[in-house]
Design brief:
Strand content: 5-15%
Oligomer: single chain
Order of helices and strands: HHHHHHHHEHHEHEHEH
Strand order of the largest sheet: 2-1-3-4
Length: 363
């Protein structure tokens, strides 16, 4: 039975990009029904229990008291939110969150439909479905009004926008699907010069560090296309997603900072949910925060749940102050292997340019 893709309810595990394969309404409804039935059964068991079942009881089974204490401590650490308070035990699993693009678009007023056209077109739906309420907030609408004045509309109908990157690339970071995020590299601005995103000086220093850590495996490429990392679970996120060419920091304070803070919050809750043993919720990822600006963005994150790697920025002015020699790429893989198994490691040394390139880089 055929159906309109925009009307379908899609699940994060099915998504690789905005045009990925999607399920029919019937299968989605069935999945929701199964989830609801399971929830009812669990609720019935809880009510009929002779005593209150604690979280420890559910996970410990018949194990020894010592083992139970360790499991309780581990679970407590993993359910701690970025703010340090305990996350809700009932956090909905990532793959069970339904989303209909048409229903979302129908919920918008005319101005919102016009302003949020780019988000509906270009943002990967694995992110759009958990950020849909955020982009309707007044601060984001005001940001989009500003960008509209700068010529940013949709993917194909923008009026020679006076911003960088091009509208079609503003949400390139979202091509790394949420459930498969392993590592987050935080930048500040897109590179403000139109030619800089190829091999800018900061990226040359990043290549130098990878070569120092993997001398027999890495040959620095002559390009700055990091799409292979994105496909391998590396989220490269700038704090501001647009900039006026030639004017670094020109879009600071317009609203991007609040939005990308929300993106980090979503990663805290769901990043890596679809990795082996992820369990449908975020169990932790690696954050690489280079420079004081990036360090401030991750200051609120739980250092027990996540691996937070900080150092000087890789820019030519600061790289020698602690970036070069930081060992972050090997440290990230060691942590990922211990957390999720050997298949979770990132292949930092492979940076082949895809047939249909979608350049991604971050400072």
């Amino acid at each position: 039975m055929s159906s309109n893709p925009d009307q379908e309810i899609v699940y994060l595990e099915d998504l690789e990009g905005p045009s990925s394969s999607q399920r029919s309404d019937g299968s989605a409804a069935s999945a929701i029904s199964v989830s609801q039935d399971a929830s009812k059964k669990n609720a019935s068991k809880t009510v009929s229990a002779k005593r209150q079942i604690t979280l420890l009881d559910m996970f410990a089974g018949n194990s020894s008291e010592s083992s139970a204490k360790k499991q309780k401590l581990s679970l407590s650490n993993e359910l701690t939110s970025s703010s340090g308070s305990k996350a809700l035990i009932g956090l909905q699993k990532l793959n069970s969150i339904p989303f209909s693009l048409k229903a979302f678009q129908d919920s918008l007023n005319e101005e919102q439909k016009n302003l949020l056209r780019l988000e509906c077109q270009a943002m990967n739906r694995s992110w759009l479905k958990v950020l849909k309420d955020e982009i309707k907030k007044p601060y984001f609408i005001e940001l989009k009004r500003f960008l509209l004045e700068e010529g940013v509309k949709g993917v194909d109908d923008s009026d020679k926008p006076r911003v960088y990157p091009s509208p079609s690339n503003i949400y390139n970071w979202s091509n790394t699907t949420l459930g498969k995020v392993k590592v987050v590299i935080i930048g500040q601005d897109p590179y403000p010069g139109r030619g800089q995103a190829h091999v800018p000086p900061s990226l040359l220093n990043i290549y130098a560090e990878i070569r120092a850590e993997y001398p027999d495996e890495f040959n620095p490429p002559k390009h700055g296309n990091l799409s292979a990392w994105a496909s391998n679970g590396v989220l490269m996120l700038n704090t501001c997603l647009t900039v006026t060419p030639g004017k670094p920091g020109s879009h600071s304070g317009k609203g991007w900072e609040q939005f990308t803070d929300k993106v980090l919050d979503v990663v805290d809750r769901y990043g890596g949910a679809n990795l082996p043993s992820g369990g449908g919720v975020g169990r932790g990822v690696v954050f690489m925060a280079w420079g004081s600006f990036a360090e401030k963005r991750v200051a609120k994150l739980n250092k027990t749940k996540h691996l937070i790697l900080t150092s000087a920025h890789p820019s030519p002015r600061a790289a020698h102050l602690g970036f070069l020699g930081n060992g972050h790429f090997r440290k990230a893989n060691e942590w990922l292997e211990k957390k999720y198994g050997p298949d979770a490691k990132v292949d930092w040394c492979r940076l082949d340019v895809p047939t249909d390139p979608s350049p991604q880089s971050s400072q």
